[in-house]
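Board work, copied verbatim: Dynein heavy chain 10, axonemal
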Amino acid sequence: MTNEQMRAISRAGAGLLKFVEAVMGYCAVAREIKPKREKVAKLERNYFQAKRDLDKVTKEVNALEAELQELNKKYEEAMAEKQALVEEATIMERRLIAADKLISGLGSEKVRWNIDLEELKKKRIRLLGDCLISSAFLSYVGAFSWEFRNDLVYKDWVNDLQEREVPLSNPFKLEDLLTNDVEISKWTSEGLPPDELSIQNGILTTRASRFPMCIDPQQQALNWIKKKEEPNNLKVCTFNDPDFLKQLELAIKYGFPFLFQDVDEYIDPVIDNVLEKNIKGGQGREFVMLGDKEVDYDPNFRLYLNTKLANPKYGPNIFGKSMVINYTVTLKGLEDQLLSVIVKFERKELEEQRERLIQETSVNKKLLKDLEDSLLRELAQSQGNMLDNVELVETLEETKTKATEVSEKLKLGAKTATDIEKLRDGYRPAAKRGAILFFVLAEMSSVNTMYQYSLASYLEVFEFSLKKSMPDSILQKRLRNIMDTLTHNIYNYGCTGIFERHKLLFSFQINIKLEQDKKAVSQEELDFFIKGKVALEKSKRKKPFAWFPDEGWEDCNRLATDYSSFSSLLDDIERNEKAWKKWFDHDTPESQPFPLGYDERLSEFQRLMLLRCFRVDRIYRAVTEYVTKTIGEKYVTPPIISFENVFEQSSPMSPIVFILSPGSDPASDLMKLADRIEFGSNKLKFLSMGQGQERVALQLLETAISRGQWLMLQNCHLLVRWLRELDKQLEKMTKPHPDFRLWLTTEPTAAFPISILQRSLKVVTEPPNGLKLNMRSTYFKISSSALSECEHTAFPALVFTLAFFHAVVQERRKYGKVGWNVSYDFNESDFRVCMQILNTYLTKAVEQGETKIPWNSLKYLIGEVMYGGRAIDNFDRRILNTYMDEYMGDFIFDTFQPFHFYCDDTVDYYIPEDGPRDVYVDYIEELPLANTPEVFGLNPNAEIGYYTQAARDMWSHLVELQPQTGESSSGISRDEFIAQIAQDVLNKLPAEYELDKIRKNLGVDITPTTVVLLQELERINLLIGRMRRSLLTLQRALAGEVGMSSELDDVARSLFNGQIPAIWRRLAPDTLKSLGNWMIHFEGRLKQYNTWVNEAEPSVIWLSGLHIPESYLTALVQATCRKNGWPLDKSTLYTSMTQYVHAEDVTERTTSGCFVHGLYLEGAGWDRENMHLVPQRPKQLIQEIPVMKIIPIEAHRLKLQNTFRTPVYMTSQRRNAMGVGLVFEADLATHEHASHWTLQGVCLILNTD
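↓ predict structure ↓
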């Protein structure tokens, strides 16, 4: 019931109900709350109990936590301490290991470094002397040869410093201060030869303060510089390149190396500033003036100059601006290079192993050096505790490992190298032979500038010889095969490119060098053979017999004093005249045994020395025999030059240079070669060089290179300057057509570019030697049809006569001045044109029915026009006309008295019976190979003259080929010897003539001859002054007081060689005398002048004692004309011989004209009894004639009969092409026809040789 219903019933009930409900509610709540309250109370009790417990526990926990924190703190502290100790232990351990490594690693270095330190301390003191010599080396010695450098540095300078007690390394070595092994290894691996000279040159090239100018005939420096600088972008140019300035500018700007190759004696002044390093500007910018342009200068820029000239004449300015370095290969250096070539060929693997080894050694040495450097750098740069520098220790460890490894490798390498060297040394004799032969070949350039050979072309022949020589398993035999083949191949190679007259010289030079190498011939013996006695004093001992040559007796005196083998020679000669005279008179004494057993006791060479004293004319033949005996006959039989062989040896890359001699014509031979090998004449191009042909030549060359043609440029000597351009084109040529060949012809000329000569195959073409070969060659070029072209019966016979005449005029050349005054270039074209003339005239005679041959026209056209047109000397033309008269006329067809060109017991030269060409060819084949001079109308003695001259020429060339240093046999040095000779000459020089005083004494009225005297004295004063000045300056130069100029150098060389210096020669009359004989002549001149000045004009004048004898003769005519009132232009001279033998015999004085003495007759003898010309006596080449009288006369009154008009010359060189040398013409009585003496080449000379 609800409360509302209750209220409705009863309010009290409602109240009660409310109460009951409340109690009920309370009761229900109380029943529910009470257990909860109890639980709460219980729980509160528990709570308070727990709280108390908790507080207690919390307290305990807090205490524990505090304790734990304390413990933690302690723990952490303990752990930190532990960590620190661990770390310290690690560091200590590491440091211990590092220290151990450093100690063990550097321990080995310590000893070395201690020693080095000590050494460096000492070195610091010794640096003074070392640097002094090294800087002097870098400044002065570059241009000298190895021997001279060695003497200068290691003898003169080192000894001088030691004497002055300047501190200096002992032993001192340039290489120690200026370079090191590593650098040297690098250089050799780049192609620099390893010999000492080359290493020195390497130092000079890289270390000198000036830019290097390399004298490099063998191109070794060139190859090294190219290889060395290749990685640095090297630029190569020549001064002839149009753009060389642009290239140089770029190189200077960007610091590239720059090389001028093929520099000659002229260096373009535009590069002077660069050479002198005239660098301007400050820190920010450096520049150099190139021409008128400022070019920024990069300090890395390097300039090299290189020349192929072996002995360039540079002025002091070039030596000042650049470092002139002599790279000329030495014998030892070349020997090592050739050894490599031989070993490479014989034992390829050995040489490859060696080259590998050199390469590896070079790399290893560099590595070792780099490692040591990096170690020292680390040590020096190390900061803080060294033991903590891990990198340092690692570097050290790596360095040590590698260093040990590298050292082992180097030790092994050194051992292997020693083993390899032992094996290689087995082949050294062949390499040495090769080196000697190269020098013989290279030195020939001093005989003729055209004889130039490069090392590269020599190496080709060398390798070719290795291939061609017979293999053999026994080394000694193999070496002998190599050496024999090589020597012969070099002989053949050399002979192809040298003139006939120098071939024996070449053989002799090969022979002598090989003999000197074996110590079979000493330099003193060779000097005597070449120069004879050089001293100016005549020997005290007079010659015992009249037949003994004067010069020979002087030589004998020197032989007896200087050489023990000849000590008793003079006594032996004096006591045994008969034996010596018999040997002396023999035709071929060189092949006869020497008298008195000299044969057994003399070596082969000493026999030559003795022969020199007796018979100079047999020396040439004796040298031939000597060569035959010592190295074999094949060295005196030069190879026959066949064009096929020349073609085989040639290649498209190297031109063939024909060196022309008079009478040779390679063009026609080349055409024949092209026909024989079926090359096709349309592919053969000819161009004769001359002004304006340059462009044409280059166009032809371009076409020929691309299309494989043959191009022959003829007479290149006419356009020598252009040849440099040609050389450039050949340099640029890379892949020519394999058929291409370039043929050049030139006369010998000093200006011909050496580079072309060195790379070319040189061929000397000469007309055949001897009548037979000459005629054979002529007939070889005449076809059968050419002989039958003309129907005239006399034509073949006249062609034969012309061929004989052509051979005779050519062969006369070899007898020198007795043959022709001027050597003419008679050649095939002369013969061809004359044959055409014969054909024309005889055909015309046949057509017109003329029986007579027009001899006069033919003789005039052939003798005067064609051949005579070449003759510029009247006496030579006289010879040609005489031959025409002798060979041309109806008498050659006379059947009653058959015609002979020449006939004696052994040989008969005549015109064969008419017939085809073969008849004439067969007859020529039957002729003897050699012919006597009589065939040409000369005296048999002409051959003696020819051989004597040949020997003298050979000696003069040999003098040039000798080393110009060292000591003479008497043990005095070259300089002392020269100074002694200079003093001897000075002692003989008088004071100069006082011309003013002499003029005063002569008064006003002086005769024409006195004028001549005054002119003569002026000239002799000039000569005396010049001699005195040059000798005094030379003495000062030898003492080192003044510089040695090239002029003084020439004087010194001439005095050393016993010749007259050129500067004296220019002021003296022409002469061929040696210095000693010339001084005797000089004193004779002074004596004549003194007599003339102090007493009176000599009654008998010595013409050769006058400077210009013709002036005296002109004065004579003048004086006579004045006296007799004759017109000067219509007066002349004639001569007559007297009976007076000597000048002292003349007692009379001439009223007009004069007496002259001291004339020598050449080509004939003089009969003193009957006063006329007679043939020469055997072996008497010249004869002094009695005193001659020269008489002026009016030309129209001169009527002479039975006389021969004889030219009078200054020397036996007669007249030259300029007409110098002819003094006057004498008239000598004769019983023979004048033509006889004309062909004998008779003349008078004022001076003997």
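The longest strand covers residues 1222-1229.
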